[in-house]
Amino acid sequence: MDMPACPLGSLLAGIKLAVWRKVHTALGAAVCVLVVVHVVQAADF
């Protein structure tokens, strides 16, 4: 019973980590874009 649980838990942890990295990267990219847009708009005035 313990043997299948370990790989499953490891797999779930790996999926969570991959999803978190994707979310973190997406959020970082969104923040960069917002900052750049804000700076460009500020420069126009």
TrEMBL record:
Keywords: Membrane, Transmembrane, Transmembrane helix. The chain crosses the membrane at residues 25-43. It comes from the Bacteria. The keyword Transmembrane helix applies. This is Uncharacterized protein. It comes from Candidatus Mediterraneibacter faecavium.
